[in-house]
TrEMBL record:
It comes from Oryza glumipatula. Residues 11-90, 1053-1104 form the Disease resistance N-terminal domain. Residues 445-511 form the Disease resistance protein winged helix domain. This is Uncharacterized protein. It comes from the Eukaryota. GO terms for biological process: defense response; response to other organism. Keywords: ATP-binding, Coiled coil, Leucine-rich repeat, Nucleotide-binding, Plant defense, Repeat. Belongs to the disease resistance NB-LRR family. Pfam families: LRR_14 (PF23598), NB-ARC (PF00931), Rx_N (PF18052), WHD_DRP (PF23559). Residues 184-357, 1177-1303 form the NB-ARC domain. One of its GO terms (molecular function) is ADP binding.
Length: 1405
């Protein structure tokens, strides 16, 4: 990440000012030199903003900036060493003030440390000289002074805190009817079952530039209800440029079904592909391939396994290039995503800028003309418009401000690199220098890992991006984080509540990484270019994400150790680390984040030698201890540990006086060292263990920690007395916003107290007193209580006391073993928006006290119980039977803002009337396993209701706004009425003997999804003749499923399909009759339409009519008009037409011959055409495929053989002797069929595989493929060998057409218009299938025009990509002796049309 120049200079200036005042600099005699450094930096400060701006596009300025930054980096290192000496002399922690030193002590220090004093002085003098030269060279660039630059640049606006409180939730990323129309078009195209090529997987392409909204459109299609009903499985695969094929296969397998799950560590593609085939076989799937940059991932990897899906499966691909869509044989025409039209772009921009309709009107009247010009410069790109909106919402709504944006010179900079988006740059330039650094740093975070806000801000603090007079750096970091969200530079992840986790759009990430390219590198293990850069360039910041690193991969710690200037290292995934590897060479490191890597003890032990380190995050299961002298890391501010085997903290940790963040929750640590109270800089502390040792308790160590914002306490059951808890002084912590209080759980898996004798009364009383003493301060915002086993909850959560917590917005309670009453103070909390209670087996009744407040007479009309509560979850209250809340309970209303309610696992008899009458904002209700619930009724606002496994539920009534209803496992459900707006009904009951009668009597949803038994499905499938059909007559769309064993939804039928199969109405039957009349003529009509426009018009009318059911009148007219064309009847037409692809049968003879030889005559019906796999499968117990290749890995070959044979083996075993024994055990007495593909030498068979496979049963067979007769002879293959002939021209033409055409119609068109050129291209391919396929791949990317094909023909050698066509020939060539290579090359010079005898050729040599 590139440090932002002016921000960095400000940071260094602050450090210089601080150190210059330090007494130690006087002792070292360097105070004057440090002052000179400060003065020179100040003299440059006026020019730095302009230099930072110009360095992006001016290489000479970039060089000057880099020299200046290098000096400043060296300055920070020197200042750190000075500061470190001061801390060592001043006291234990960095926060301790320096101790007064007498003249004698000063003299003694200099006498005892002459080398240090001289070294520091020399370094600072050298830095002054370098900085002096840089200052002089600045004149050559004519940098603008700060005041002139500020006149050009837009002024800073108020911070995010001054704006509307929740702008992100009020904005929409989708505007206009166009995207809705595109969604409908694509859904119709994908669900249309009339595509002619039904047995092939149809590919539909969405094409458009980056950031235009392809992924957004694909997501809308993917989540459309019609798509959900039309397909058995939906799969989303993100392909991207650096696609990981193994991970792609794993994701596909996991997405298909549980039955298709494979070992998540499996990395052998030849095993993953068959697993995917088994998982997808006979399933009708919808696959989205998002962000595809090349057709190779489809053509070379996914196409074959997905071809085993059921007919009617569809693939939707999003890509930036038409050529990719053509290469994937996508259906024409491709769907091009248009840019936003100006009105829609203006609407989107306004949504980013304003917060009310009134403001929209105001902007329309005053700023629309300028806004439309800005829109024009955005080029209709939604992402650009959104980023511009984020920028403009920071400005005043004045014409002058908007005109500055419009006329900024960056719009016209011609040297702007392709990776930079003008609009993003404008937004970037408008950021405060410190915020620029935070933005660029965010682009370093690995894309596939979730980083929480506190982790991100801690990195920023550790890097020095957040500094100044304030001590509340965490709060400043949170404001910066939210500012980036408001400006649309990062986006909150919808999977997490609030804004805890965010993501960065690819286009924005690309922009930021390009800006940071001179200092930072972000790479993956498969990034060869990045690997090369890592070896050839020096970086300051490095982010690595590895995946499936192979044992022989050179990508390891050794490469990183060469980056000696590194200041930040982020490593996610495995890395090759040798026992002796350490961190010592990375002496400048400030930030270290290691996740899932295989850390060695040497690596961890070397941590303390990194003097500058501020941030450590270790998420490694291998770590069992930290270095004992960790206390020497005086600058350490952040320590996050997710190390389950770590059970002890070093005693020296108490010396880390600058530590601000400590997370122990992911460890097994149960004790902390005494003196922990000295860590007074701590702001965040998770997983603090409660420990008692005599008269000492760890809680008393918390007393002096007054700066805490976040605190999590565990093992509170260990506190023996209330006095110890009081010493924690929680109530005095004026900054505390989050508190977690945790005891070890007393509940078993059944939700009841595990000890049959219950929890002793004395223990209950003791824990109640402890929690009462742990009273949080009034500033608290979030509280979690887990494992509390007292009968009474803390007093500070009860009655009027709770109302004082005006900021408390989230309360979560879990594992309340003995508590028999919900806290009656929660209803008084004015800010509470989220409440969750899970596992409270002692609560049997929730009384009116839970909701009752007694306001004063002056507050009577305004008071509400739970006034802002939006979400409430009540789960696992297994004995709860009664909830008292009557409509006339009192004059105070309750829960007016509640939107979502979840109730699970209880015995509640009824939902209280007060809930339905007073919770008027309730839209979503989830009820699961409520044993005694009989009915759900009278919720006027409810839109979505889901009921699962409620055994006594009988009726659902009077839900006037309900749109979606899910009923699953409710066998007594009989009444459903009063749901006039119901759109979707889902029923699941595998024991259902008949469809519920309410389908006939009271409801008519648009969509009905049934999950039932196979018997019920058959009953439905009998159509009008069956008793169940009439119940479906009022439903427009029906989808019914039945399971078969572990295969969920194995069988299905849709109502539309039944209409066609069973002719449920007279109109459908009439339509069928008329279509049958036309059937005899369709073959001839399809042939003639290609050259006869009038026939083409007739066929078009017919196609349009067939798409619209029951339009018999139009179809009748078309039938009559057919007579004018004198179409030939089907039998006559078949006499005229030659059979298609007859030569394919000739090639099947080779296959059948091989099967006969391999199965040794076992099958009697050898003349019948059969699938090869079936014949081989019947003849063999095991089928094994091994790809041998030239550079065969013998260990991998043995592992694959063992897995394929069904043997058990540790996937990490690399000892060949052990692997051979395992293969013998796996293959013993089994009749196997083994294929060794691409064998170059007999050694793999003779020296490795022959011996273990000799233990197979009699009748086993081996099939090898090789380029050399000598290999087959040495392997003693059966004579005669089977030589594969070249393709006949006609077969070659068929193969070429299959590569180019995406439908039968297109094949016919190519036959008629391009066959002559195609046959000439075929001739040049020489009958080689690989050459034909490569040519087909090339031609599929061209338009189907003679000029394009003719160009390929004329430029054959130049247009064929050598990497594709020459792979096979190149392998042959590389295998030749050097002398033979020369002879081979010489032969290519001989004229093609002249015969040269061998003696002539030999004489030439």
């Amino acid at each position: 990440m590139a440090i932002v120049l002016d921000a960095f200079a400000s940071y260094v200036g602050d450090l210089l000012k601080q150190v210059a005042q330090d007494e130690l600099t006087l002792l070292l005699g360097v105070s004057s030199e440090i002052a000179s450094l400060h003065e020179r930096l100040n003299s440059l400060k006026d020019y730095l903003a302009d230099a930072e701006r110009r360095r992006i596009t001016d290489q000479s300025v970039q060089g000057w900036v880099r020299k200046l930054k290098d000096v400043m980096y060296d300055v920070t290192d020197i200042l750190d060493l000075c500061h470190l000496k001061a801390m060592q002399r001043g006291g234990v922690g960095s926060s301790a003030p320096p101790v007064n030193i007498s003249c004698l002590d000063s003299l003694l220090f200099c006498l005892r440390n002459p080398l240090f004093a001289h070294d520091i002085g020399s370094h600072i003098k050298a830095l002054n000289a370098r900085l002096d030269a840089i200052c002089k060279s600045a004149a050559a660039f004519s940098f603008l002074k700060l005041e002139a630059y500020e006149d050009m640049a837009a002024p800073r606006r108020p911070s995010a805190a001054d704006r509307k409180t929740d702008p992100v939730l009020e904005r929409s990323a989708v505007v206009g009817e166009k995207i809705e129309e595109d969604t409908r078009t694509l859904v119709k195209m994908l669900t249309n079952g009339k595509n002619k090529k039904q047995n092939a997987v149809v590919v539909v392409a969405v094409v458009g530039t980056g950031g235009i909204g392809k992924t957004t459109l694909a997501k809308k299609v993917f989540n459309d209800e019609a798509i959900k009903e039309a397909f058995d499985k939906k799969i989303w695969l993100s392909v991207t440029q650096d696609v990981n094929e193994v991970e792609l296969l794993r994701t596909a397998i996991r997405s298909v079904s549980v039955g298709g799950a494979s070992d998540g560590r499996e990395s052998n593609k030849s095993l993953l592909v068959p697993t995917l085939v088994d998982a997808i076989r006979d399933k009708r799937f919808f696959l989205v391939l998002d962000d595809v940059w090349s057709d190779r991932a489809w053509s070379g990897l996914l196409k074959v396994p997905f071809s085993h899906g059921a007919a009617g499966s569809r693939v939707l691909v999003t890509t930036r290039h038409d050529a990719v869509a053509r290469g994937m044989q996508a259906m024409n025409p491709f769907h091009h995503v248009d840019k936003l039209c100006p009105p829609d772009a203006w609407s989107l921009l306004k949504k980013q800028v304003v917060s009310s309709e009134m403001e929209e009107v105001e902007i329309d009247e005053t700023l629309k003309d300028i806004g439309m010009e800005i829109i024009d410069k955005c080029g209709g790109l939604p992402l650009a418009v959104k980023v511009m909106g984020g920028l403009l919402c920071k400005k005043e709504r004045r014409r002058a401000d908007w005109e500055k944006i419009l006329h900024d010179s960056i719009w016209s900079v011609p040297q702007m690199p392709d990776e930079l988006n003008y609009t993003i740059y404008l937004s970037y330039q408008d950021l405060h220098p410190c915020l620029k650094q935070c933005f660029l740093h965010y682009s370093l975070l690995p894309k596939n890992v979730d980083f929480f806000i506190d982790t991100v801000t801690s990195m920023w603090i550790s890097e020095g991006f957040l500094h100044g007079e304030t001590d509340d750096l965490e709060q400043l970091g949170e404001e910066c984080y939210k500012e980036l969200i408001y400006r649309n530079l990062i986006e909150p992840n919808a999977e997490y509540a609030g804004e805890w986790v965010s993501t960065m759009h690819d286009v924005v990430r690309s922009f930021a990484q390009h800006l940071a390219r001179d200092e930072a590198l972000v790479i993956s293990s498969r990034d060869e270019i990045g690997r090369g850069a890592l070896k050839s360039h020096k970086f300051l910041r490095l982010s690595i994400e590895t995946d499936d690193l192979q044992p022989d991969d050179e990508f390891g710690w050794k490469i990183i150790q060469g980056q000696k200037s590194l200041r930040t290292l982020i490593l996610v995934g495995e890395l090759k680390i040798n026992p002796g590897d350490s961190l010592i060479t990375l002496s400048s490191l400030r930030t270290l984040h290691i996740e899932n890597a295989n850390c060695t003890s040497t690596l961890v032990e070397s941590l303390h030698q990194l003097k500058h380190l501020r941030y450590i995050s270790l998420k490694c299961g291998d770590i069992t201890r930290l270095p004992e002298n960790i206390g020497k890391m005086r600058f350490l501010q952040y320590l996050g540990l997710v190390c389950e085997n770590l059970d002890r903290l070093p005693n020296s940790i108490v010396k880390l006086g600058q530590l601000r963040y400590l997370d122990l929750s992911g460890t097994s640590i149960t004790s902390i060292p005494r003196g922990f109270c000295g860590l007074t800089s701590l702001r965040t502390l998770y997983g603090f263990p409660t420990q008692v040792d005599g008269d000492w308790c760890s809680l008393q160590e918390l007393g002096p920690l007054s700066q805490l914002w976040v605190l999590g306490l565990s093992n509170l059951e260990n506190v023996p007395a209330i006095s110890f808890a009081a010493k924690a002084r929680l109530g005095e912590k004026a900054h505390l916003s989050y508190l977690m209080l945790e005891c070890s759980s007393r509940l078993g898996e059944d939700g009841f107290v595990e000890d049959e004798n219950g929890v002793p009364a004395e223990e209950q009383r003791q824990i109640e007193e402890v929690f009462n003493a742990l009273t949080p301060p009034l500033c608290i915002e979030s509280i979690e209580i887990s494992g509390h086993f007292g009968e009474q909850l803390p007093r500070w959560m009860m009655s009027r006391v709770a109302g004082a917590y005006e900021r408390l917005s989230m309360v979560i309670m879990d594992d309340l073993a003995c508590c028999n009453q919900l806290p009656d103070g929660l209803c008084r909390l004015p800010s509470l928006y989220y409440f969750q209670l899970t596992h409270a087996p002692a609560i049997k009744r929730v009384g009116p006290e839970f909701l009752t407040i007694l306001p004063s007479s002056s507050q009577l009309r305004q008071a509400h119980a739970f006034p802002r509560l939006k979400r409430m979850n009540l789960i696992g209250m297994v004995e709860w039977e009664e909830w008292e809340w009557d409509q006339q309970l009192n004059s105070v209303h309750a829960m007016p803002a509640l939107e979502e309610l979840v109730i699970e696992n209880c015995k509640l008899r009824r939902l209280p009337p007060g809930l339905s009458s007073q919770a008027t904002a309730l839209t979503s209700l989830y009820l699961r396993n409520i044993q005694q619930l009989n009915s759900v009724e009278s919720f006027a606002s409810l839109v979505k209701l889901e009921v699962y496994d409620n055994p006594n539920l009988e009726s659902i009534t009077s839900l006037n706004r309900l749109q979606k209803l899910v009923i699953n496992g409710c066998p007594k459900m009989r009444i459903l009425e009063g749901v006039p707006e119901l759109l979707r009904l889902e029923l699941k009951d595998l024991d259902m003997e008949e469809l519920p009668r309410y389908l006939l009597q009271s409801v008519s949803p648009r969509h009905l999804v049934l999950d039932c038994s196979l018997e019920m499905l058959i009953a439905i499938s009998t159509g009008e003749s069956g008793p169940e059909w009439s119940k479906l007559s009022r439903v427009q769309h029906v989808k019914a499923y039945a399971d078969q064993g572990d295969n969920e939804r194995r069988w299905h039928v849709a109502k539309d399909e039944l209409n066609l199969l069973f002719g449920v109405s007279l109109k459908i039957a009439t339509l069928h009759d008329k279509l049958r009349i036309l059937k005899d003529y369709l073959a001839d009509a399809d042939r003639r339409r290609i050259t006869d426009q009038s026939v083409q018009g007739w066929v078009t009318k017919l196609k349009h009519t067939i798409r619209i059911k029951a339009l018999n009148a139009r179809l009748d007219a078309i039938c009559k008009s057919a007579a004018t064309f004198s179409f030939l009847k089907l039998e006559s037409y078949e006499d005229m037409v030659a059979p298609r692809r007859s030569s394919v049968a000739d090639r099947r003879m080779d296959t059948r011959a091989l099967v006969r030889r391999l199965t040794d005559g076992k099958h009697k019906k050898q003349d019948a055409v059969m699938v090869v796999a079936m014949a081989i499968k019947e003849a063999s117990d095991k089928k094994i495929w091994l790809s041998v290749t030239q550079d065969v890995n013998e260990v991998d070959l043995l592992r694959t053989a063992i897995k394929s044979a069904g043997g058990a083996s540790d996937g990490r075993e690399s000892n060949k002797s052990l692997l051979v024994l395992a293969l013998v055990d796996a293959i013993r007495d089994k009749r196997f069929f083994l294929v060794l593909d691409d064998v170059w030498s007999e050694r793999s068979w003779d020296n490795l595989l022959k011996a273990p496979f000799s233990h197979g049963a009699a009748g086993s067979r081996l099939l090898i493929t090789t380029r050399h007769d000598e290999v087959t002879q040495r392997m003693e293959a059966m004579q005669p060998f089977h030589h594969v002939d070249k393709l006949y021209p006609q077969d070659a033409w068929l193969l070429l057409k299959k590569q180019v055409a995406s439908s039968d119609d297109m094949e016919v068109e190519i036959d008629d218009t391009l066959k002559d050129i195609g046959m000439e291209i075929i001739e040049k391919c020489g009958g080689l299938p690989l050459a034909v396929k490569v040519m087909g791949g090339l031609l599929s990317r061209r338009e189907k025009r003679r000029s394009d094909w003719d160009q390929v023909l004329q430029d054959f050698m130049w247009s064929v990509p050598p990497a594709l066509l020459d792979d096979a020939v190149y392998l042959n060539y590389q295998d030749l002796h050097p002398c033979l290579k020369q002879c081979f090359l010489h032969c290519s010079l001989l004229p093609k049309n002249v015969v040269f005898y061998n003696v002539t050729v030999l004489a030439c040599g």
